[in-house]
Protein backbone atom coordinates (compact mmCIF):
# COMPACT_ATOMS: atom_id res chain seq x y z
CA UNK A 1 0.00 0.00 0.00
CA UNK A 2 2.88 2.37 0.79
CA UNK A 3 4.14 2.08 -2.78
CA UNK A 4 0.74 2.90 -4.17
CA UNK A 5 0.57 5.98 -1.98
CA UNK A 6 3.84 6.96 -3.66
CA UNK A 7 2.09 6.59 -7.02
CA UNK A 8 -0.58 9.05 -6.03
CA UNK A 9 1.99 11.38 -4.54
CA UNK A 10 3.70 11.30 -7.87
CA UNK A 11 0.36 11.60 -9.64
CA UNK A 12 2.60 10.69 -12.50
CA UNK A 13 4.53 13.84 -13.25
CA UNK A 14 4.74 16.14 -10.27
CA UNK A 15 5.44 15.46 -6.64
CA UNK A 16 4.14 18.20 -4.38
CA UNK A 17 6.78 17.81 -1.69
CA UNK A 18 7.40 21.22 -0.29
CA UNK A 19 7.52 20.53 3.39
CA UNK A 20 11.28 20.19 3.80
CA UNK A 21 12.96 21.67 6.84
CA UNK A 22 14.86 24.80 5.95
CA UNK A 23 18.44 25.03 7.18
CA UNK A 24 20.37 28.13 8.15
CA UNK A 25 21.61 30.24 5.28
CA UNK A 26 25.30 30.71 4.55
CA UNK A 27 26.89 33.75 2.99
CA UNK A 28 28.66 32.24 -0.02
CA UNK A 29 29.93 34.25 -2.96
CA UNK A 30 28.48 32.93 -6.21
CA UNK A 31 31.55 31.92 -8.25
CA UNK A 32 32.57 28.83 -10.26
CA UNK A 33 34.92 27.67 -7.52
CA UNK A 34 32.27 28.05 -4.85
CA UNK A 35 29.72 26.27 -7.06
CA UNK A 36 31.97 23.26 -7.51
CA UNK A 37 33.00 23.11 -3.87
CA UNK A 38 29.40 23.34 -2.72
CA UNK A 39 27.60 21.24 -5.32
CA UNK A 40 30.01 18.36 -5.65
CA UNK A 41 29.80 17.30 -2.05
CA UNK A 42 26.09 18.06 -1.69
CA UNK A 43 25.00 16.16 -4.80
CA UNK A 44 27.14 13.12 -3.99
CA UNK A 45 25.89 13.10 -0.42
CA UNK A 46 22.23 13.35 -1.43
CA UNK A 47 22.66 10.70 -4.12
CA UNK A 48 24.19 8.33 -1.60
CA UNK A 49 21.47 9.05 0.96
CA UNK A 50 18.63 8.48 -1.51
CA UNK A 51 20.26 5.66 -3.50
CA UNK A 52 20.41 7.53 -6.81
CA UNK A 53 22.54 5.88 -9.56
CA UNK A 54 23.11 8.94 -11.75
CA UNK A 55 22.50 12.66 -12.10
CA UNK A 56 23.25 15.65 -14.29
CA UNK A 57 23.61 19.19 -12.93
CA UNK A 58 23.76 22.30 -15.12
CA UNK A 59 24.05 25.94 -14.10
CA UNK A 60 23.94 28.87 -16.49
CA UNK A 61 24.63 32.49 -15.57
CA UNK A 62 24.86 35.64 -17.64
CA UNK A 63 24.36 33.67 -20.85
CA UNK A 64 27.19 31.19 -20.15
CA UNK A 65 27.26 27.65 -18.84
CA UNK A 66 29.04 28.02 -15.52
CA UNK A 67 28.77 24.47 -14.29
CA UNK A 68 28.13 21.23 -16.17
CA UNK A 69 28.66 17.95 -14.42
CA UNK A 70 27.51 14.34 -14.67
CA UNK A 71 27.41 12.15 -11.58
CA UNK A 72 27.28 8.38 -11.32
CA UNK A 73 25.99 6.08 -14.03
CA UNK A 74 23.34 6.05 -16.74
CA UNK A 75 23.80 2.26 -17.02
CA UNK A 76 24.76 0.48 -13.82
CA UNK A 77 25.58 -2.92 -15.32
CA UNK A 78 27.83 -1.51 -18.04
CA UNK A 79 29.18 1.26 -15.77
CA UNK A 80 28.32 3.91 -18.37
CA UNK A 81 28.98 7.27 -16.78
CA UNK A 82 26.54 10.16 -17.02
CA UNK A 83 27.75 12.81 -19.44
CA UNK A 84 26.04 16.22 -19.24
CA UNK A 85 26.45 16.86 -22.98
CA UNK A 86 25.02 13.61 -24.27
CA UNK A 87 23.18 11.53 -21.62
CA UNK A 88 19.41 11.82 -22.06
CA UNK A 89 17.24 11.90 -18.93
CA UNK A 90 13.43 11.96 -18.86
CA UNK A 91 12.31 15.44 -17.78
CA UNK A 92 8.73 14.66 -16.67
CA UNK A 93 6.53 17.71 -16.20
CA UNK A 94 9.23 20.09 -17.36
CA UNK A 95 7.86 18.94 -20.72
CA UNK A 96 4.88 21.19 -20.02
CA UNK A 97 7.13 24.23 -20.45
CA UNK A 98 7.22 23.36 -24.17
CA UNK A 99 3.40 23.29 -24.27
CA UNK A 100 3.15 26.74 -22.74
CA UNK A 101 5.90 28.11 -24.96
CA UNK A 102 4.01 26.82 -28.00
CA UNK A 103 0.76 28.37 -26.72
CA UNK A 104 2.45 31.73 -26.20
CA UNK A 105 4.03 31.59 -29.66
CA UNK A 106 0.58 31.20 -31.20
CA UNK A 107 -0.79 33.87 -28.85
CA UNK A 108 1.99 36.19 -29.98
CA UNK A 109 0.90 35.65 -33.59
CA UNK A 110 -2.69 36.50 -32.76
CA UNK A 111 -3.88 32.93 -33.37
CA UNK A 112 -4.88 32.28 -29.76
CA UNK A 113 -6.68 34.33 -27.14
CA UNK A 114 -5.76 33.28 -23.60
CA UNK A 115 -9.15 34.44 -22.30
CA UNK A 116 -11.36 32.86 -24.98
CA UNK A 117 -13.43 29.71 -24.53
CA UNK A 118 -11.13 26.82 -25.50
CA UNK A 119 -14.01 25.07 -27.28
CA UNK A 120 -13.71 27.56 -30.13
CA UNK A 121 -10.30 26.04 -30.93
CA UNK A 122 -11.17 22.38 -30.45
CA UNK A 123 -13.54 21.78 -33.36
CA UNK A 124 -15.51 18.55 -32.96
CA UNK A 125 -13.71 17.84 -29.71
CA UNK A 126 -15.40 19.94 -27.03
CA UNK A 127 -15.20 20.08 -23.24
CA UNK A 128 -18.40 20.05 -21.24
CA UNK A 129 -18.82 23.16 -19.13
CA UNK A 130 -19.63 23.08 -15.44
CA UNK A 131 -22.36 25.54 -14.54
CA UNK A 132 -22.07 27.00 -18.03
CA UNK A 133 -18.72 28.67 -17.29
CA UNK A 134 -16.15 28.66 -20.05
CA UNK A 135 -12.65 27.22 -19.69
CA UNK A 136 -9.87 29.40 -21.08
CA UNK A 137 -6.25 28.80 -22.00
CA UNK A 138 -5.31 30.88 -18.97
CA UNK A 139 -7.21 28.32 -16.87
CA UNK A 140 -5.22 25.50 -18.43
CA UNK A 141 -1.94 27.36 -17.91
CA UNK A 142 -2.70 28.09 -14.25
CA UNK A 143 -4.35 24.69 -13.57
CA UNK A 144 -7.63 26.33 -12.61
CA UNK A 145 -9.91 24.62 -15.15
CA UNK A 146 -11.42 22.43 -12.41
CA UNK A 147 -10.62 18.94 -13.74
CA UNK A 148 -10.39 15.98 -11.41
CA UNK A 149 -7.14 14.05 -11.49
CA UNK A 150 -6.59 10.77 -13.31
CA UNK A 151 -3.57 8.55 -12.67
CA UNK A 152 -4.74 5.25 -14.12
CA UNK A 153 -3.81 4.84 -17.75
CA UNK A 154 -1.22 7.61 -17.83
CA UNK A 155 1.46 5.07 -18.69
CA UNK A 156 1.42 2.56 -21.52
CA UNK A 157 2.86 -0.93 -21.83
CA UNK A 158 4.62 -0.16 -25.09
CA UNK A 159 4.41 2.15 -28.10
CA UNK A 160 1.31 0.28 -29.33
CA UNK A 161 -0.57 1.59 -26.30
CA UNK A 162 0.06 5.20 -27.38
CA UNK A 163 -2.82 6.96 -29.13
CA UNK A 164 -3.05 10.18 -31.12
CA UNK A 165 -3.59 13.00 -28.64
CA UNK A 166 -7.17 13.77 -29.69
CA UNK A 167 -8.20 10.10 -29.51
CA UNK A 168 -6.65 9.72 -26.08
CA UNK A 169 -8.33 12.80 -24.62
CA UNK A 170 -11.66 11.88 -26.21
CA UNK A 171 -11.56 8.54 -24.38
CA UNK A 172 -10.00 9.56 -21.09
CA UNK A 173 -10.51 13.28 -20.43
CA UNK A 174 -11.32 13.65 -16.72
CA UNK A 175 -14.54 15.33 -15.67
CA UNK A 176 -14.66 18.97 -14.71
CA UNK A 177 -15.69 18.89 -11.06
CA UNK A 178 -15.05 22.50 -9.98
CA UNK A 179 -15.98 25.79 -11.63
CA UNK A 180 -13.08 27.48 -13.46
CA UNK A 181 -11.09 30.02 -11.43
CA UNK A 182 -12.29 28.55 -8.13
CA UNK A 183 -9.31 26.39 -7.08
CA UNK A 184 -5.87 25.43 -8.34
CA UNK A 185 -5.56 21.71 -9.00
CA UNK A 186 -2.62 20.52 -11.08
CA UNK A 187 -3.77 18.65 -14.20
CA UNK A 188 -1.78 16.61 -16.69
CA UNK A 189 -4.82 16.15 -18.90
CA UNK A 190 -5.58 19.87 -18.83
CA UNK A 191 -2.03 20.53 -20.03
CA UNK A 192 -2.40 17.92 -22.77
CA UNK A 193 -5.64 19.64 -23.80
CA UNK A 194 -3.62 22.82 -24.39
CA UNK A 195 -1.23 20.78 -26.55
CA UNK A 196 -4.22 19.55 -28.59
CA UNK A 197 -5.20 23.19 -29.15
CA UNK A 198 -1.67 23.81 -30.46
CA UNK A 199 -2.20 20.94 -32.89
CA UNK A 200 -5.61 22.19 -34.01
CA UNK A 201 -4.52 25.81 -34.54
CA UNK A 202 -1.10 25.12 -36.08
CA UNK A 203 -2.21 22.19 -38.24
CA UNK A 204 0.82 20.20 -37.04
CA UNK A 205 1.14 17.31 -34.61
CA UNK A 206 2.72 18.33 -31.33
CA UNK A 207 6.00 16.50 -32.00
CA UNK A 208 6.51 18.35 -35.27
CA UNK A 209 5.45 21.72 -33.91
CA UNK A 210 7.90 21.58 -31.00
CA UNK A 211 10.74 20.39 -33.20
CA UNK A 212 10.19 23.09 -35.82
CA UNK A 213 9.43 26.02 -33.54
CA UNK A 214 11.43 25.40 -30.36
CA UNK A 215 14.01 22.61 -30.58
CA UNK A 216 15.59 23.34 -33.97
CA UNK A 217 15.75 27.14 -33.50
CA UNK A 218 17.55 26.67 -30.17
CA UNK A 219 19.81 23.91 -31.48
CA UNK A 220 18.34 21.37 -29.07
CA UNK A 221 19.19 18.33 -31.18
CA UNK A 222 19.29 15.97 -28.21
CA UNK A 223 15.75 16.57 -27.01
CA UNK A 224 12.68 14.65 -28.10
CA UNK A 225 9.11 13.84 -27.11
CA UNK A 226 9.05 10.66 -29.19
CA UNK A 227 8.61 7.30 -27.49
CA UNK A 228 10.78 5.34 -27.84
CA UNK A 229 13.38 7.98 -28.64
CA UNK A 230 14.66 8.16 -32.25
CA UNK A 231 17.27 5.58 -33.19
CA UNK A 232 20.15 8.07 -33.36
CA UNK A 233 19.51 9.12 -29.75
CA UNK A 234 18.72 5.75 -28.21
CA UNK A 235 22.35 4.85 -27.28
CA UNK A 236 22.45 7.94 -25.07
CA UNK A 237 19.21 7.35 -23.10
CA UNK A 238 19.80 6.76 -19.40
CA UNK A 239 18.11 3.85 -17.72
CA UNK A 240 15.83 4.45 -14.76
CA UNK A 241 16.36 2.58 -11.49
CA UNK A 242 14.59 1.82 -8.24
CA UNK A 243 17.85 2.36 -6.36
CA UNK A 244 21.59 1.98 -6.70
CA UNK A 245 21.37 -1.47 -5.12
CA UNK A 246 19.12 -2.75 -7.96
CA UNK A 247 21.31 -2.92 -11.06
CA UNK A 248 18.50 -4.18 -13.28
CA UNK A 249 16.98 -1.17 -15.08
CA UNK A 250 13.29 -0.42 -14.93
CA UNK A 251 11.30 -0.46 -18.18
CA UNK A 252 11.13 2.60 -20.42
CA UNK A 253 8.14 4.67 -19.36
CA UNK A 254 5.69 5.15 -22.20
CA UNK A 255 3.71 8.24 -21.22
CA UNK A 256 0.36 8.36 -22.94
CA UNK A 257 -0.41 12.07 -22.33
CA UNK A 258 2.99 12.65 -23.89
CA UNK A 259 3.06 16.47 -24.20
CA UNK A 260 2.62 16.67 -20.42
CA UNK A 261 5.65 14.57 -19.52
CA UNK A 262 7.34 12.45 -22.19
CA UNK A 263 10.32 14.68 -22.94
CA UNK A 264 13.87 13.30 -22.94
CA UNK A 265 16.77 15.76 -22.99
CA UNK A 266 20.47 16.13 -22.39
CA UNK A 267 21.85 18.57 -19.83
CA UNK A 268 23.47 20.62 -22.60
CA UNK A 269 20.12 21.06 -24.33
CA UNK A 270 18.45 22.13 -21.10
CA UNK A 271 21.19 24.73 -20.71
CA UNK A 272 20.15 26.18 -24.08
CA UNK A 273 16.51 26.32 -23.02
CA UNK A 274 17.37 28.08 -19.75
CA UNK A 275 19.58 30.59 -21.58
CA UNK A 276 16.72 31.36 -23.96
CA UNK A 277 14.30 32.06 -21.11
CA UNK A 278 16.85 34.13 -19.19
CA UNK A 279 17.63 35.92 -22.48
CA UNK A 280 13.98 37.04 -22.57
CA UNK A 281 13.08 34.61 -25.31
CA UNK A 282 16.26 34.66 -27.40
CA UNK A 283 19.46 32.64 -27.72
CA UNK A 284 22.35 33.57 -30.00
CA UNK A 285 20.20 35.98 -31.95
CA UNK A 286 17.39 33.44 -32.46
CA UNK A 287 14.08 34.30 -30.82
CA UNK A 288 11.47 31.75 -29.81
CA UNK A 289 9.38 34.32 -27.90
CA UNK A 290 9.10 38.07 -27.94
CA UNK A 291 10.46 39.78 -24.82
CA UNK A 292 7.05 41.11 -23.82
CA UNK A 293 5.47 37.69 -24.33
CA UNK A 294 7.98 36.01 -22.06
CA UNK A 295 7.52 38.69 -19.43
CA UNK A 296 3.79 38.03 -19.56
CA UNK A 297 4.42 34.31 -19.06
CA UNK A 298 6.09 34.91 -15.71
CA UNK A 299 3.37 37.22 -14.43
CA UNK A 300 0.65 35.83 -12.10
CA UNK A 301 -2.20 34.10 -13.88
CA UNK A 302 -4.12 33.11 -10.75
CA UNK A 303 -3.66 34.03 -7.09
CA UNK A 304 -5.25 31.94 -4.36
CA UNK A 305 -4.34 34.37 -1.58
CA UNK A 306 -2.57 37.75 -1.72
CA UNK A 307 0.31 36.51 0.45
CA UNK A 308 0.75 33.08 -1.17
CA UNK A 309 2.79 32.48 -4.30
CA UNK A 310 0.60 32.64 -7.41
CA UNK A 311 0.36 30.37 -10.43
CA UNK A 312 2.13 31.88 -13.42
CA UNK A 313 1.29 31.35 -17.10
CA UNK A 314 2.50 27.76 -17.18
CA UNK A 315 5.50 28.23 -14.93
CA UNK A 316 5.51 27.58 -11.20
CA UNK A 317 6.47 30.44 -8.90
CA UNK A 318 9.48 28.98 -7.06
CA UNK A 319 10.50 32.17 -5.26
CA UNK A 320 12.40 31.64 -2.05
CA UNK A 321 14.17 33.77 0.54
CA UNK A 322 12.78 36.96 -1.07
CA UNK A 323 14.36 36.07 -4.44
CA UNK A 324 11.95 35.81 -7.36
CA UNK A 325 12.30 32.50 -9.13
CA UNK A 326 10.24 30.52 -11.60
CA UNK A 327 10.52 27.18 -13.35
CA UNK A 328 9.12 23.68 -13.11
CA UNK A 329 9.66 20.31 -11.49
CA UNK A 330 9.17 17.03 -13.34
CA UNK A 331 8.71 13.49 -12.09
CA UNK A 332 8.05 10.09 -13.55
CA UNK A 333 8.48 6.87 -11.58
CA UNK A 334 12.22 6.59 -12.17
CA UNK A 335 13.31 10.10 -13.25
CA UNK A 336 13.08 13.34 -11.29
CA UNK A 337 14.10 16.78 -12.48
CA UNK A 338 13.97 20.47 -11.60
CA UNK A 339 14.56 23.61 -13.61
CA UNK A 340 14.77 26.86 -11.63
CA UNK A 341 15.37 30.31 -13.11
CA UNK A 342 16.30 33.37 -11.00
CA UNK A 343 15.98 36.31 -13.41
CA UNK A 344 17.43 39.03 -11.16
CA UNK A 345 20.64 36.98 -10.94
CA UNK A 346 20.40 35.84 -14.57
CA UNK A 347 20.86 32.32 -13.22
CA UNK A 348 19.39 28.98 -14.22
CA UNK A 349 19.77 25.61 -12.46
CA UNK A 350 18.83 22.22 -13.91
CA UNK A 351 19.16 18.96 -12.00
CA UNK A 352 17.93 15.57 -13.20
CA UNK A 353 18.25 12.17 -11.52
CA UNK A 354 17.57 8.59 -12.63
CA UNK A 355 16.49 6.98 -9.34
CA UNK A 356 13.10 6.53 -7.69
CA UNK A 357 13.92 8.86 -4.77
CA UNK A 358 15.12 11.66 -6.99
CA UNK A 359 12.43 14.13 -5.91
CA UNK A 360 13.75 14.10 -2.35
CA UNK A 361 17.21 14.71 -3.79
CA UNK A 362 16.40 17.71 -5.97
CA UNK A 363 14.21 19.31 -3.30
CA UNK A 364 16.97 18.93 -0.75
CA UNK A 365 19.48 20.36 -3.20
CA UNK A 366 17.27 23.33 -4.13
CA UNK A 367 16.64 24.19 -0.51
CA UNK A 368 20.29 24.05 0.52
CA UNK A 369 21.49 25.79 -2.64
CA UNK A 370 19.16 28.74 -2.13
CA UNK A 371 19.97 29.02 1.56
CA UNK A 372 23.70 28.93 0.83
CA UNK A 373 23.93 31.34 -2.10
CA UNK A 374 20.76 33.39 -1.73
CA UNK A 375 19.83 33.52 1.97
CA UNK A 376 17.03 35.65 3.29
CA UNK A 377 18.85 38.73 4.57
CA UNK A 378 16.02 40.89 5.88
CA UNK A 379 13.11 38.67 6.90
CA UNK A 380 9.88 40.53 7.64
CA UNK A 381 9.12 41.06 11.26
CA UNK A 382 6.47 38.84 12.77
CA UNK A 383 3.83 41.17 14.19
CA UNK A 384 2.87 40.86 17.81
CA UNK A 385 -0.44 39.01 17.71
CA UNK A 386 -2.57 38.79 20.81
CA UNK A 387 -3.53 35.12 20.85
CA UNK A 388 -6.64 34.55 22.93
CA UNK A 389 -8.29 31.32 24.03
CA UNK A 390 -9.86 29.65 21.02
CA UNK A 391 -7.74 31.68 18.56
CA UNK A 392 -6.81 28.53 16.62
CA UNK A 393 -10.00 26.53 17.16
CA UNK A 394 -11.68 27.37 13.83
CA UNK A 395 -8.51 26.34 11.93
CA UNK A 396 -7.98 22.93 13.53
CA UNK A 397 -8.80 19.80 11.61
CA UNK A 398 -7.74 17.58 8.70
CA UNK A 399 -7.15 19.02 5.23
CA UNK A 400 -6.88 17.01 2.02
CA UNK A 401 -5.13 17.87 -1.22
CA UNK A 402 -7.77 18.55 -3.88
CA UNK A 403 -5.84 16.73 -6.59
CA UNK A 404 -7.27 13.22 -6.68
CA UNK A 405 -9.74 11.16 -8.67
CA UNK A 406 -13.33 11.22 -7.50
CA UNK A 407 -14.49 8.61 -9.99
CA UNK A 408 -12.19 5.57 -9.64
CA UNK A 409 -10.77 3.42 -6.87
CA UNK A 410 -7.69 5.65 -6.45
CA UNK A 411 -9.99 8.04 -4.58
CA UNK A 412 -8.99 6.22 -1.40
CA UNK A 413 -5.48 7.65 -1.67
CA UNK A 414 -6.89 11.04 -0.67
CA UNK A 415 -7.47 9.44 2.72
CA UNK A 416 -3.71 9.10 3.19
CA UNK A 417 -2.62 12.48 1.79
CA UNK A 418 -3.81 14.54 4.72
CA UNK A 419 -2.47 17.58 6.50
CA UNK A 420 -3.45 17.92 10.16
CA UNK A 421 -3.69 21.37 11.71
CA UNK A 422 -3.51 21.51 15.50
CA UNK A 423 -2.71 23.98 18.23
CA UNK A 424 0.83 23.29 19.45
CA UNK A 425 1.14 25.94 22.15
CA UNK A 426 -0.26 29.30 23.07
CA UNK A 427 1.40 30.93 20.06
CA UNK A 428 1.96 28.24 17.40
CA UNK A 429 0.05 26.08 14.98
CA UNK A 430 1.39 22.59 14.35
CA UNK A 431 1.11 21.39 10.75
CA UNK A 432 1.57 17.63 10.38
CA UNK A 433 2.15 16.30 6.87
CA UNK A 434 3.19 12.92 5.40
CA UNK A 435 6.74 14.33 5.39
CA UNK A 436 7.04 15.74 8.91
CA UNK A 437 5.57 18.24 11.38
CA UNK A 438 6.30 21.96 11.47
CA UNK A 439 5.41 24.97 13.60
CA UNK A 440 3.82 28.14 12.24
CA UNK A 441 3.34 31.43 14.06
CA UNK A 442 0.54 33.88 13.25
CA UNK A 443 1.04 37.02 11.16
CA UNK A 444 -2.70 37.58 11.37
CA UNK A 445 -5.66 35.36 12.13
CA UNK A 446 -5.52 33.60 8.72
CA UNK A 447 -1.85 33.98 7.70
CA UNK A 448 1.04 32.03 9.30
CA UNK A 449 4.81 31.87 8.77
CA UNK A 450 6.88 28.74 9.30
CA UNK A 451 9.25 28.97 12.22
CA UNK A 452 12.77 29.79 10.98
CA UNK A 453 11.63 30.10 7.36
CA UNK A 454 10.16 32.49 4.83
CA UNK A 455 7.39 30.03 3.89
CA UNK A 456 3.79 31.05 4.48
CA UNK A 457 0.46 29.30 4.73
CA UNK A 458 -2.95 30.96 4.63
CA UNK A 459 -6.50 29.87 5.33
CA UNK A 460 -9.54 30.69 3.21
CA UNK A 461 -13.26 30.75 3.95
CA UNK A 462 -16.28 29.45 2.07
CA UNK A 463 -19.38 31.45 1.17
CA UNK A 464 -20.73 30.98 4.69
CA UNK A 465 -17.62 32.37 6.36
CA UNK A 466 -16.36 28.97 7.59
CA UNK A 467 -12.72 27.91 7.26
CA UNK A 468 -12.62 25.71 4.18
CA UNK A 469 -9.23 26.02 2.44
CA UNK A 470 -5.54 25.91 3.23
CA UNK A 471 -3.02 27.48 0.82
CA UNK A 472 0.74 26.96 1.03
CA UNK A 473 3.69 28.79 -0.52
CA UNK A 474 5.32 25.47 -1.31
CA UNK A 475 2.22 24.07 -3.02
CA UNK A 476 0.99 26.82 -5.35
CA UNK A 477 -0.31 24.18 -7.77
CA UNK A 478 -2.78 22.73 -5.24
CA UNK A 479 -5.52 23.77 -2.85
CA UNK A 480 -6.15 21.90 0.38
CA UNK A 481 -9.72 21.48 1.55
CA UNK A 482 -10.89 21.02 5.12
CA UNK A 483 -12.30 17.54 5.56
CA UNK A 484 -15.83 17.00 6.90
CA UNK A 485 -16.21 14.65 9.87
CA UNK A 486 -17.58 11.80 7.76
CA UNK A 487 -14.37 11.70 5.71
CA UNK A 488 -11.91 11.97 8.58
CA UNK A 489 -8.97 9.60 8.89
CA UNK A 490 -9.96 8.70 12.44
CA UNK A 491 -13.44 7.58 11.37
CA UNK A 492 -12.38 5.56 8.32
CA UNK A 493 -9.30 4.02 9.91
CA UNK A 494 -11.48 3.15 12.88
CA UNK A 495 -14.14 1.47 10.72
CA UNK A 496 -11.49 -0.47 8.80
CA UNK A 497 -9.66 -1.66 11.92
CA UNK A 498 -12.95 -2.64 13.53
CA UNK A 499 -14.05 -4.58 10.44
CA UNK A 500 -10.64 -6.22 10.10
CA UNK A 501 -10.55 -7.21 13.77
CA UNK A 502 -14.13 -8.48 13.87
CA UNK A 503 -13.84 -10.56 10.72
CA UNK A 504 -10.43 -11.93 11.72
CA UNK A 505 -11.98 -12.94 15.07
CA UNK A 506 -14.93 -14.68 13.38
CA UNK A 507 -12.71 -16.41 10.85
CA UNK A 508 -10.64 -18.17 13.53
CA UNK A 509 -12.71 -18.12 16.71
CA UNK A 510 -15.91 -19.76 15.53
CA UNK A 511 -14.22 -22.84 13.97
CA UNK A 512 -12.18 -23.27 17.17
CA UNK A 513 -15.32 -23.02 19.34
CA UNK A 514 -17.19 -25.46 17.09
CA UNK A 515 -14.42 -28.05 17.27
CA UNK A 516 -14.00 -27.58 21.02
CA UNK A 517 -17.71 -28.06 21.69
CA UNK A 518 -17.84 -31.24 19.64
CA UNK A 519 -14.80 -32.70 21.37
CA UNK A 520 -14.96 -31.52 24.97
CA UNK A 521 -18.44 -30.32 25.85
CA UNK A 522 -21.83 -31.97 25.87
CA UNK A 523 -24.56 -30.14 23.96
CA UNK A 524 -27.03 -28.30 26.20
CA UNK A 525 -30.50 -29.44 25.01
CA UNK A 526 -32.14 -26.38 26.59
CA UNK A 527 -30.02 -23.82 24.75
CA UNK A 528 -30.28 -22.80 21.13
CA UNK A 529 -27.18 -21.56 19.38
CA UNK A 530 -26.98 -19.39 16.31
CA UNK A 531 -28.40 -21.19 13.29
CA UNK A 532 -25.72 -22.81 11.15
CA UNK A 533 -26.90 -20.79 8.14
CA UNK A 534 -26.36 -17.50 9.99
CA UNK A 535 -22.93 -18.57 11.19
CA UNK A 536 -21.98 -19.77 7.73
CA UNK A 537 -22.91 -16.44 6.16
CA UNK A 538 -20.81 -14.55 8.72
CA UNK A 539 -17.84 -16.91 8.35
CA UNK A 540 -17.86 -16.78 4.53
CA UNK A 541 -18.14 -12.98 4.67
CA UNK A 542 -15.18 -12.81 7.04
CA UNK A 543 -13.14 -14.99 4.68
CA UNK A 544 -14.05 -12.79 1.69
CA UNK A 545 -13.12 -9.62 3.58
CA UNK A 546 -9.71 -10.98 4.56
CA UNK A 547 -9.02 -12.23 1.02
CA UNK A 548 -9.93 -8.81 -0.38
CA UNK A 549 -7.70 -6.88 2.04
CA UNK A 550 -4.70 -9.15 1.55
CA UNK A 551 -5.20 -9.41 -2.21
CA UNK A 552 -5.55 -5.67 -2.69
CA UNK A 553 -2.38 -5.05 -0.68
CA UNK A 554 -0.45 -7.49 -2.89
CA UNK A 555 -1.77 -6.09 -6.17
CA UNK A 556 -1.12 -2.48 -5.20
CA UNK A 557 2.42 -3.29 -4.07
CA UNK A 558 3.46 -2.73 -7.71
CA UNK A 559 2.05 0.72 -8.50
CA UNK A 560 3.77 0.96 -11.88
CA UNK A 561 1.85 -2.03 -13.26
CA UNK A 562 -1.44 -0.57 -11.98
CA UNK A 563 -0.69 2.79 -13.59
CA UNK A 564 0.02 1.06 -16.91
CA UNK A 565 -2.91 -1.34 -17.08
CA UNK A 566 -5.49 -2.62 -14.58
CA UNK A 567 -4.28 -6.16 -13.70
CA UNK A 568 -6.70 -9.03 -14.21
CA UNK A 569 -6.12 -9.96 -10.57
CA UNK A 570 -7.43 -6.56 -9.49
CA UNK A 571 -10.49 -6.89 -11.70
CA UNK A 572 -11.18 -10.27 -10.11
CA UNK A 573 -10.67 -8.91 -6.60
CA UNK A 574 -13.24 -6.18 -7.19
CA UNK A 575 -15.91 -8.90 -7.46
CA UNK A 576 -15.46 -9.60 -3.74
CA UNK A 577 -16.91 -6.31 -2.40
CA UNK A 578 -20.09 -6.94 -4.39
CA UNK A 579 -20.47 -10.43 -2.93
CA UNK A 580 -19.50 -9.13 0.52
CA UNK A 581 -22.25 -6.51 0.30
CA UNK A 582 -24.85 -9.07 -0.70
CA UNK A 583 -23.94 -11.43 2.14
CA UNK A 584 -23.93 -8.53 4.62
CA UNK A 585 -27.50 -7.73 3.60
CA UNK A 586 -28.46 -11.39 4.03
CA UNK A 587 -26.83 -11.32 7.48
CA UNK A 588 -29.00 -8.32 8.37
CA UNK A 589 -32.14 -10.25 7.41
CA UNK A 590 -30.95 -13.26 9.43
CA UNK A 591 -30.24 -10.97 12.37
CA UNK A 592 -33.84 -9.77 12.40
CA UNK A 593 -35.08 -13.36 12.41
CA UNK A 594 -32.68 -14.36 15.18
CA UNK A 595 -34.18 -11.71 17.47
CA UNK A 596 -37.50 -13.56 17.24
CA UNK A 597 -35.98 -16.79 18.62
CA UNK A 598 -36.42 -16.58 22.40
CA UNK A 599 -34.16 -19.55 23.16
CA UNK A 600 -31.11 -17.71 21.83
CA UNK A 601 -29.47 -15.60 24.50
CA UNK A 602 -29.70 -11.83 24.29
CA UNK A 603 -25.90 -11.62 24.42
CA UNK A 604 -25.61 -13.81 21.32
CA UNK A 605 -28.24 -11.77 19.49
CA UNK A 606 -26.50 -8.49 20.30
CA UNK A 607 -23.10 -9.92 19.28
CA UNK A 608 -24.44 -11.07 15.91
CA UNK A 609 -26.20 -7.79 15.23
CA UNK A 610 -23.07 -5.79 16.11
CA UNK A 611 -21.19 -7.93 13.61
CA UNK A 612 -23.87 -7.16 11.01
CA UNK A 613 -23.57 -3.41 11.67
CA UNK A 614 -19.77 -3.56 11.40
CA UNK A 615 -20.02 -5.30 8.04
CA UNK A 616 -22.61 -2.82 6.77
CA UNK A 617 -20.28 0.01 7.83
CA UNK A 618 -17.52 -1.68 5.81
CA UNK A 619 -19.90 -1.88 2.83
CA UNK A 620 -20.53 1.86 3.07
CA UNK A 621 -16.78 2.46 3.28
CA UNK A 622 -16.15 0.34 0.16
CA UNK A 623 -18.88 2.26 -1.64
CA UNK A 624 -17.56 5.66 -0.54
CA UNK A 625 -14.03 4.95 -1.79
CA UNK A 626 -15.17 3.50 -5.14
CA UNK A 627 -14.17 -0.06 -4.26
CA UNK A 628 -17.66 -1.48 -4.67
CA UNK A 629 -17.55 -2.68 -8.27
CA UNK A 630 -15.34 -1.92 -11.24
CA UNK A 631 -14.60 1.78 -11.02
CA UNK A 632 -11.44 2.46 -12.98
Give a structural overview.
With about 625 residues, this protein is an alpha+beta fold. It folds into 3 domains: about 1-375, 3-Layer(aba) Sandwich (Beta-lactamase); about 395-485, no CATH class; about 485-625, no CATH class. About 35% of the residues lie in helices and about 15% in strands. The protein contains 17 helices and 24 strands. Strands 17-18-19-20-21-22-23-24 form an 8-stranded antiparallel β-barrel. The chain is globular and about 95 Å long.
Which keywords apply here?
Beta-lactamase, eight-stranded antiparallel β-barrel, 17% strand, globular, 3 domains, alpha+beta, seven-stranded antiparallel sheet
Q: In the CATH hierarchy, what is the superfamily of the largest domain?
A: DD-peptidase/beta-lactamase superfamily
Q: Count of DSSP E strands?
A: 24
**How many helices does DSSP assign?**
17
- Strand numbers in spatial order across the main sheet: 17-18-19-20-21-22-23-24
- Oligomeric status: single chain
How would you classify the helix and strand content by structural class?
A: alpha+beta
CATH class (first level) name of the largest domain: Alpha Beta
Mean pLDDT: 89
Runs with pLDDT <50, length 5+?
A: 1-28
Q: What overall form do the CA principal axes indicate? A: globular
Amino acid sequence: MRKFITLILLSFLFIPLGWCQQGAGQDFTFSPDRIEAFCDGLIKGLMSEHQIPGAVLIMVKDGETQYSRGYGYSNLKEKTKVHPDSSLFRIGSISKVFIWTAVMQLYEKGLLDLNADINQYLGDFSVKKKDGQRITLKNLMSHTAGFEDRVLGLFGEDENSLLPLEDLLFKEMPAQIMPPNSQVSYSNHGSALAALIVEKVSGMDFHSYVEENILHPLGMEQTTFKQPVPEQLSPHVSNGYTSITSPDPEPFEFIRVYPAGAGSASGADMAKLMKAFLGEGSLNGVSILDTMTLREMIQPAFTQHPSIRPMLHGFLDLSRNQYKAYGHFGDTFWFHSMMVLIPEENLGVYLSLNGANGALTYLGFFEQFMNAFFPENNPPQIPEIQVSDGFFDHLKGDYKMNRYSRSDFTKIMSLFLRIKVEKDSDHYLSISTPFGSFLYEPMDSLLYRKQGSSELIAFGKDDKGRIKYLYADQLPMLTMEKVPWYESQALHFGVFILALSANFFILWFWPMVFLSRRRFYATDPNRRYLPLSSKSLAWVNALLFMIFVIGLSIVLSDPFSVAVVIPTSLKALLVIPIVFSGISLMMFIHGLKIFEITAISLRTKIFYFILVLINLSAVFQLFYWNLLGWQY
